[in-house]
Specification:
The chain is an alpha/beta fold. Helices cover 39% and strands 16% of the residues. It is built from five helices and five strands; from the N terminus they run H-H-E-E-H-E-H-E-E-H. Helix 2 packs parallel to helix 5. The longest helix is centred in the C-terminal third of the chain and has 21 residues. It is globular. It starts with 16 loop residues before the first helix and ends with a helix. The structure holds zinc ion (ZN). The site of zinc ion has 6 residues, from helix 4.
Amino acid sequence: MDRASDFGSEGWGFESSRVYKLIFTYLPMLFSEKDYQFMYAALSEAEKALDEDEVPIGAVIVHNDRIIGRGYNQTESLNDSTAHAEMIALTAASNHLQSKFLDECKLYVTVEPCIMCAGAIMTSRIKDIYFGAFEPKFGACGSRLNLIENNPYNIKINIYSGIYSEESKHLLKSFFEKKRNITGSD
Ligand SMILES: [Zn+2]
């Protein structure tokens, strides 16, 4: 388990790999049973995307321990490059609360958000992001970029990663393997 916001580790001042190992051992305790439940719900959303031949990423937004918004990637079916799981979940949650601000909500998403979604999350005032797998190519919350932590607007958002990361990666892998096989047989 890892925590994106601590990935640079400079701020923590840990030099010994032994200490680092200890942190990695104890980090799973950061996540509660509910966190796993909500990420599981996000994974179920990602499975819907997989069933519809979309890149399988899913998201849920939680308010007072209840899911108030769900979404899965629908960029192909909607012909809309903005139809990422997080964006759809944000809109659903805002509709539910009848509020453009979601400052008492948490976002659970199976894959590290991209720059667009990171921007939308900041705009929505969500305070906690939980994500499963890192996205080394387009991730904007700790891997390729860390837009959230390095934002110039003094917006403070906590980022936690690693819940069901293997499961999240597995879904992506199945999708891209399937795609490769189809392309290969043409
Ligand atoms: Zn995105």
